[in-house]
Write a structure and sequence with these properties.
Blueprint lengths: L5 E2 L13 E5 L4 E4 L3 H27 L3 H5 L4 H9 L2 H10 L3 H20 L16 H17 L2 H11 L19 E5 L10 E5 L1 E3 L10 E5 L2 E6 L9 E3 L3 E6 L6 E6 L1 E2 L2 E4 L2 E4 L1 E10 L5 E10 L5 E5 L2 E7 L7 H10 L3 H8 L8 E6 L4 E4 L12 H4 L3 E2 L18 E3 L5 E4 L31 H11 L6 H8 L5 H14 L5 H12 L11 H11 L28 H19 L6 H4 E5 L2 E4 L13 E2 L2 E3 L2 E3 L2 E3 L1 E6 L5 E6 L16 H5 L4 E2 L4 H5 L2 E6 L1
Parallel strand pairs: 1-33, 3-7, 11-21, 24-28
Antiparallel strand pairs: 2-3, 2-33, 4-5, 4-23, 5-30, 6-29, 7-8, 8-9, 9-10, 10-19, 11-18, 12-13, 13-14, 15-16, 17-18, 19-20, 20-22, 24-25, 26-29, 27-28, 30-31, 31-32
Helix pairs in contact: 1-5, 1-6, 4-6, 5-6, 8-9, 13-14, 13-16, 14-16, 15-16
Length: 700
């Protein structure tokens, strides 16, 4: 085991980080033991730079709306989006609106970033040093940009809306998980459903891998009266999921509509509103763009705003303004901090009542045995209309569609200590959080899609696993978390194989023989999973599921519907096509899953397990990068934790792609073998335990 002692010789600010230390464990996780909270934030900024410096500075440069100035015209479109939406100006407004004490924490985080850069300039790629120094405004601005204009009001979402309006796409489902992301899972098990009678929690977000703002970093924060183990996204000063000794929470992207696009009627340079013509608010900006020779040219940017928000599209006879929820709620970062501070259910509710985090289901469990899932966020309080109406472009010529406030915390769908003893979510609407299901009639029709909308097969897999045993042990919960079983195969293969039995087609006969022996799992050595995936892509992908199934979704019987094949004869034709494709691509129909689907990070390249949530795999990955005939995981399982709130808390976690993005770090790939083996690793928190697994020590 490598052991080092590094003493940081810094000019420490007046708050003093003395008696603060970072103990880095052998997986590159920083354990921060701070003299006070301000020092804790300072050390956290320092720690993020050690593991993520280049990515962090890139993200801050992007969030300033100056990425093209720093790195060239490939960032011009992003800069336009950031500047049109006024992110730099609002970042300053939000920073000024922070609680004075919390603002000192943000400043300390920024100082930690800057001081690391001064102490270790050689560790930062030259092209990113231009972003330094950073400030507390940058910290706020990056979180604002990432949440409100990447997760929520993104350019990709605008394109989907416009395409749907112009008839370029047949189906529009908003809000989607972030572009290209298959979603997240979370479970909370209450004492009545737990074999140990202790509450348990699964934290399991699915986000993009690689150098992206979606990336997580595992961190342990400890200061007087504060202790939290969790994961911020890079550049965030606080974890967005995590747990302390008494409580914890996971999150999933929810079906919350926090962004509306308004179709404006423009005449003579003004827009119609309540029977009048109103002038646009105008603003001129200039975006600097760096050229290959190091010189700059300037691109003018003319911005128009209506009462709804900025005009974000004006082409093909369509003028659209965008309104984003939460721009008037500047304390998002503090809310996450307070959620991490909560020691019991009432304190966690109090943190949620900040009502500043604009989206995500919050799934909570604690040592007192309470569990709670809240369809959390800022749901605009609308005068009329259902979720389908508001998920499309709406008229902008009337105040009847202009919302100005949000539902309160008390008005949001939630499940607290349900009789079932569990809460779960896999990005579906809140109604199937638990069983019996929640009643949509108790909430406005615009809150979420109705319960008649079929769930995903990943949701069905989650519901079947969480209800199959009266009591769930910790080990069983972890095993379920790692399940690679394709729920769609369970649902349709009996009908498919029955229909295939009467076929004389050699491809059908061979495919049916293989799938009849297959255990429906997508493990590295699974033979049959690749063929079934190709069958899904040939027959089901891109189509509504209900019409293709013999027993359609029935919300009154959520565990006993949504299966079979409505037209098994037609499905058999597609099975033959899938077999032909599989043989053409891979030379055989029984190719092992891990020969085709792979995990890669750093220098590691390993056979994968798990699969797409659309075929009902709970252990979800999207294999979006292709090299030859091999598909590599591009998103999916990221930070995973399984917690039992016992007297001696039991915790195991994993960060799939490792705890560093900095090139050359050993922590780019050190957790990937555990991922491939479907294992978690123990979490160390006590100093003695951490020092027994220590790689580096830094003292301030």
């Amino acid at each position: 085991m490598r052991r080092f002692l590094a003493v940081a010789l810094l000019t420490i600010p007046a708050f003093s980080a003395q008696k603060t230390e970072i103990l880095w464990d052998t997986f590159g996780v920083p354990h921060i033991y701070a003299a006070n909270r301000e020092s804790m934030f300072y050390a956290h900024g320092w720690a993020q730079m050690r593991n993520q410096a280049d990515l962090l500075l890139l993200l801050y440069g992007e969030s300033r709306g100056r990425a093209a100035e720093y790195w060239g015209d490939k960032y011009l479109s992003l800069d336009r989006w950031v500047q049109v939406n006024g992110v730099p100006e609002r970042a300053q407004v939000w920073y000024d609106a922070q609680d004075p004490t919390f603002r000192t924490y943000l400043d300390a985080f920024a100082r930690g970033i800057n001081d690391f850069a001064k102490a270790h300039p050689e560790s930062i790629a030259p092209e990113y040093r231009c972003v330094l120094p950073v400030s507390g405004v940058d910290v706020v601005g990056h979180s604002l940009r990432a949440v409100h204009y990447m997760y929520m009001g993104s350019r990709e979402r605008l394109k989907r809306e416009v395409d749907a309006y112009l008839g370029k796409t047949a189906d529009l489902r908003l809000p989607d998980p972030p572009e290209g992301i298959p979603g997240s899972n979370t479970w909370a098990i209450g004492p009545s459903h737990s074999a140990s009678h202790n509450a348990m929690l699964i934290i399991n977000p699915h986000l993009a891998w690689g150098e992206t703002f979606y990336r997580y970093m595992e961190v342990h924060l400890s200061a007087p009266d504060y202790e939290l183990y969790g994961a911020p996204q890079i550049g965030f000063p606080v974890p967005v999921v995590g747990f302390n000794r008494h409580a914890g929470w996971g999150r999933t992207v929810n079906t919350i509509d926090t962004v509306d696009f308004y179709r404006l009627t423009v005449r003579d340079g003004e827009y119609e509103f309540d029977g009048k013509l109103l002038p646009f608010e105008h603003q001129s900006k200039v975006i600097k763009v760096k050229q290959a020779d190091g010189s700059f040219h300037e691109v003018p940017l003319e911005i128009r705003r209506s009462v709804h928000g900025p005009v974000v599209y004006d082409a093909q006879g369509l003028t659209i303004a965008m309104r984003v929820a939460g721009l008037d709620r500047p304390k998002m970062l503090e809310q996450w901090f307070r959620m991490g501070e909560a020691q019991n259910l009432e304190q966690f509710k109090a943190a949620l009542r900040f009502m500043s985090v604009p989206m995500w289901n919050a799934n909570y469990a604690d040592a007192d045995g309470h569990i709670m899932l809240v369809f959390d966020g800022l749901v605009p309080k609308r005068a009329s209309g259902d979720w389908t109406y508001w998920s499309k472009i709406v008229p902008g010529d009337t105040s009847q569609t202009l919302w100005k406030n949000y539902l309160s915390f008390e008005e949001l769908p939630k499940s607290i200590d349900p009789a079932s003893g569990f809460n779960q979510n896999t990005n579906e609407p809140p109604w199937t959080t638990t069983i019996p299901t929640l009643d949509p009639a108790k909430y406005p029709a615009y809150v979420a899609p109705g319960i008649a909308s079929p769930p995903s097969f990943r949701t069905m897999r989650s519901l079947h696993m969480i209800t199959q045993d009266k009591l769930i042990s910790y080990d069983q919960m972890v095993a379920d978390k790692h399940s690679t079983r394709m729920e769609l195969a369970d649902a349709v293969l009996p009908d498919l194989l029955k229909a295939a039995a009467s076929s004389s087609d050699p491809d059908v006969m061979a495919a049916a023989a293989l799938l009849g022996k297959w255990n429906h799992e997508a493990n590295a050595d699974s033979r049959g999973a690749v063929l079934f995936q190709l069958f899904y892509e040939d027959y089901f992908a891109g189509h509504a599921m209900n019409p293709l199934l013999r027993v359609p979704w029935n919300p009154a019987a959520p565990l006993d519907s949504f299966y079979g094949l409505a037209n098994p004869g037609e499905a058999v034709k597609h099975l033959a096509s899938a077999a032909q494709t599989c043989r053409k691509l891979y030379g055989a129909i029984d190719v092992p899953w891990g020969d085709v689907y792979r995990f890669a990070s750093g220098n590691a390249d390993l056979p994968a397990n798990g699969g797409d949530g659309s075929v009902g795999v709970f252990r979800t990955f999207q294999f979006g990068r292709k090299e030859g005939n091999k598909h590599y995981a591009s998103s999916g399982e990221t930070f995973v934790c399984a917690i039992e709130f016992a007297k001696a808390q039991r915790v195991n976690c994993l960060l799939s792609y490792g705890n560093a993005s900095q090139h050359g770090s050993p922590h780019l790939e050190d957790q990937l073998p555990l991922l491939a083996a479907r294992k978690l690793r123990p979490v160390w928190r006590d100093k003695k335990e951490v020092k027994a697994h220590m790689e580096l020590e830094e003292k301030f």
